[in-house]
Amino acid sequence: IIGDQYRWPKTIPYYMEDDLEINAKGVILKAFEQYRLKTCIDFKPWSGEENYISIFKGSGCFSSVGNRKVGKQRLSIGKNCDRIATIEHEFLHALGFWHEQSRADRDDYVEIMWDRISEGKEHNFNTYDDTTSSSLGVPYDYGSMMHYSKNAFRNGTEPTIVTKIPAFSDVIGQRMEFSDSDLLKLHRLYNCTKGSTFLDSCDFERENICGMIQGPGDKADWIRVSTAAGGPSTDYSNMGKCTGSGYFMHFNTGTANTGDTALLESRLVYPKRGYQCLQFFYYNSAGPSDTLKIYVREYDSANLSGTLRLIKTIDGSPQELWQLHHVSLDAKKKFRVVFQGAKEGSGPSTGGMSLDDINLSETTCPEFVWRVKNFSDVMDKTPADTPIFSPPFTSKEGYTFQMGLYPSGKADYPGELSAYAHLVAREGDTGQTWPCPWKQITMMLMDQHPHIQKRMSNQRSVTTDPNMTATDSNQFFWDDPRKVGVEVTDTDGSKYFRGPGAGTPVYLTHLRAKSRDFIKGGDAIFLLTMEDVSHLTGVQPPPSVSPAPGTTAAPGVCSNVECLNNGVCVVDGGMPECRCDVGDDWWYYGNRCQNKGSIKDKTTLALASSLSVLAAMLIITLVTVICLKKKYKKRANDDGVIMRNTGA
Amino acid sequence: SPRAKLPDYDVDGGRDLDIFDINEEAGLNLVEGDIVLDETQTRNS
Question: Which ipTM was obtained for this model?
């Protein structure tokens, strides 16, 4: 939408209303994280700003376009809207974006089949001319998450939108993630230069290796290569598909001496949040006792050359594949990530350690990785309505869960991937509360693009509501799997109980699953997490009781300050200050919130002021009239005298 | 493949509903399916 008045500040205040579903609240926070990772847009809880977005559970998913400057601007995330792409879509509206197919130039790219549109719905296919809407110099994007799908508002079975390039017919209407063009437009509209939480990414395709350096004091080097004796034969970014490209970093342990180390250090990065996730692909063809260690080298005024701190040792026997690794970091000052390869013992004369597709961001790491090998085959050969299951994973709170995937879809859903989350329990498990309270399970099919900001992964989340009962039953759905589940035998012969699954039969179409980098080297990677979301069952504190960021309630400073009428004492610039309670049409004010104001008082005051001014003006007018009258009367009398004298 | 004692739960009600389908089912008649116009915009329209 054209007009600077419609822009939000780069940090948008939000308020999550109480009526939102808990799962929706969790997914909204995930959507915010994607905005932070991929754009300069940030979100903060509303702390009294004049304009903010109120997210509520309306009867659907909807938003206004741009900042309407109405104070509380409503954005609805209703039933079935709790998908990350839906939430990102609605927030793109709020940030100032119309739908992609309403661009002024859309008729160059798609044909609208007017006779196939449901009666009365034709207005949904309007366009906005280039005085109202700008495409910001970005080409028409069939892959935009703001594009309708081909069947939108149809009256029968034929599509309402036909793409001029037929190959894009099933591309339009994607609801996975921001496309590259969505992000480019957002960057241009809001003058973004970088993602708020993004730190670094490298696929080693360029000779400058993204500013990474060989560390000091080592005996060997990491070398940029496109193939390595002993493996791997190709990189991971391109899998050897592009001639003249496809590089990775390799430490040849075959030729190194026992005790040799090689340090590869990232460029300097500047953390803001104090926690990071390092993600990379690692190919280990070194000896079984050789190790890869991850350090951070942290800098401050006392350590100008930096202090090394070990984070994790990656060991394990060599494997003939690129393995995905996640390492959680906790750097709070300027730092580099250091990869240290160490040849610890005698090993094979060829091979070594290889790194590719490194990504560093200030986000939390996914907890569990489920890799499905030969995924195309699995999709093609698994009979319909037949699930495969991930291994059981145990969260840090002690609950075990697993993902059930129907590679050929559940019954009645051919051509789809169907995905379900199940709780798991073993005989003898103790310490859990049943039914399982408020754990959000997220199942993400990872788009394995080398650059984290360009990934369009597909994810769905479900949340364990301890009060939910099963359909046609009074049993709690998320109760102990030993009560509501069935006993199954694991591949190693151990037995466990699997509870019923919650998820969707339409997780992703086969067509989309075979697009982008969802399958790479034949394999698909699912990233699974189980997070506690019980804190989202509470109410978001309204500004009157929520100190603004940068101000903290300090009992010492505030102990002698009494704020009346529900006011809250905060410390601002070292001084205690009362933040007063505010309602829709009333407010408290004064240094101790001792006075009450209201719109009624304001109206009375305005009326009284107006009447006073009116009265004063009347008095002045009367006085002026009387004075003028007297003056002219006197002059008339004087004139008569003169006339008489002249005449005489 | 073992069958669960309780049936699985489809969070989408077993249907692939896009934003516009959800809003249509809810009886909403919004601009372009999911856009709310304010009073000034409505008058212009």
Answer: 0.89
